[in-house]
Amino acid sequence: MSADEEKKIIDNAEEEEEDEEETNNPQAQAVDGEGAAKKKKKKKNNNKKKKKATAQSEPPRVGITKLFPNGSYPEGEIQEYSGENSYRTTSAEKKEAEKLAMADPVKTYSDIRRAGEVHRQVRSYVQRSVKPGMSMTEIAEMVEDGTRACVEEDGLNSGVGFPTGVSLNDCAAHYTPNAGDKTVLNASDVLKIDFGVHVNGRIVDSAFTLNFEPTYNKLLEAVKAATNTGIKVAGIDMRLGDIGAEIQEVMESHEVEVNGTTYPVKAIRNLCGHSIDKYKIHGGKSVPIVNNGDQTKMEEGEYYAIETFGSTGRGYVSDQGVCSHYGRNKDAPHVPLRTQSAKSLLKVIDKNFGTLPFCRRYLDRIGESRYLLALNNLVDAGIVNDYPPLHDIKGSMTAQFEHTILLRPTVKEVVSRGTDY
Fold first, then answer.
1. How many domains are contained in the chain?
2. What are phi and psi of 15, to 5 degrees?
3. Is 15 annotated among the ligand-binding residues?
4. Is the C or the N end of the chain the one with fewer CB within 10 Å?
5. Which domain holds residue 160?
6. 212 and 176: one domain?
7. 265 and 361 co-located in one domain
8. Ranges of Basic residues compositional bias (predicted)?
9. Is 280 part of a structural domain of the chain?
10. Could you give the CA distance from residue 248 to residue 232 in angstroms, rounded to a whole number?
11. CATH of residue 364
């Protein structure tokens, strides 16, 4: 679809809203007979402009607010609390707490549901469209172009939540192509697509894995089951280490046969899920995917990314390869910068990304050039953190599934759940 066609779709949706406003305005209807006839003729000649924006385009370019003009976005999957928390579903006190949370603009769920719906609609198109032979840059930009259009990117008010991960095979996370990367997707690859959407800093973080032939189907099944287990057992007052134990038990009950050799699926023990804060993808609490004994509890009102990684390798990842992911260190001490280029780049980062993670392609996109030395200076000073690609042993395969959950006072809401996973 050309840029003109994309613009036409969005313009048509906006014109439809204008028509609706005019219809509801008595002064606009008070026209003479000749004017009414002309108006009728004009509308007849513009039937396409009258169509409601009721469906997403392909590729996705219609803003979600156009599809939900009343601002009411779909709830995610609702799961009732169990055990000691089962009373919450019917508790009058907790229902009142939820009503207050919904009315509080700081705690409202509307922004995160809007982000969740964007995620569902973009990934639906991506899952149908990604094919072997595509470059990793094409795939990442397919995700990001759809996200920016559907969330109606607006500076730090709405946009992508972090760089699109398109990690392949033994690379489990933190890979997105830099400029000039010619890597191409092969039919035998296992591809993790991990992307985020934010509205007013409320980030939805969700990921899935694609494969194009059946060798590693069992690996994907194991990781999906482990993620769903983590979601099921997560809840208010649940200890993080206990969640990790449940995830590990399910994950490591699976195995994969490859060319006559059987490999146990291992939970990648140094990767984990995490709480999410406003404009901060890692909010301070980690949700392990192995039993690490962490006694920290989940709390009411928090929200989390429950993500699990499985591997046919050693179940441990290390930094390898050229870095693409970066993020502003919110807690960095004041450090005097020696070069003007580093000072200038920091201003660009603060203005465009704040504490949201970014990648080198995002700097390219906003017109920055020759910034690598300045970026490395910021990393060396501890002002910006770098996040290199994370790999298990060469020849192994890794998979990932992830959802964002809200721990509401009365129920648990899987905000990013869709019919796909």
1. 2
2. -65, -35
3. no
4. N
5. 56-72+105-314+400-420
6. yes
7. no
8. 38-53
9. yes
10. 14
11. 1.10.10.10
d(CA 118, CA 48): 25
Catalytic option among 119, 274, 325, 403 = 274
Contact indicator for 148, 160 with CB cutoff of 8 Å: yes
* Annotation marks residue 334 as catalytic: no
181 a catalytic residue: no
8 A C-beta contact, residue 384 and residue 299: no
3-state secondary structure of 198: strand
189 is in an annotated binding site: no
Do residues 225 and 350 both lie within one domain? no
pLDDT for 333 = 84
Q: Are 63 and 206 part of one and the same domain? A: yes
Considering the candidates 98, 111, 205, 413, report the single residue annotated as catalytic.
205
- Catalytic residue, from 111, 402, 403, 413: name it: 402
282 noted as active-site residue: yes
Q: Indicate the residue type of 418.
A: G
Known catalytic residue: 391? no
**154 catalytic per annotation:** no
DSSP state letter for 315: S
254 is in an annotated binding site: no
Q: Stretch 219-228: mean pLDDT, rounded?
A: 98
The answer, yes or no, to whether residue 185 has pLDDT greater than 70, is yes
Say if CB 191 and CB 209 are below 8 A apart. yes
Asked if 205 is an active-site residue, the reply is yes
pTM of the model: 0.87
Tell whether the model's pLDDT for residue 48 goes beyond 50. Answer: no
Q: Three-state SS for 390? A: strand
- Identify the active-site residue in 170, 194, 246, 413: 194
Question: Do 242 and 306 lie in a common domain?
Answer: yes
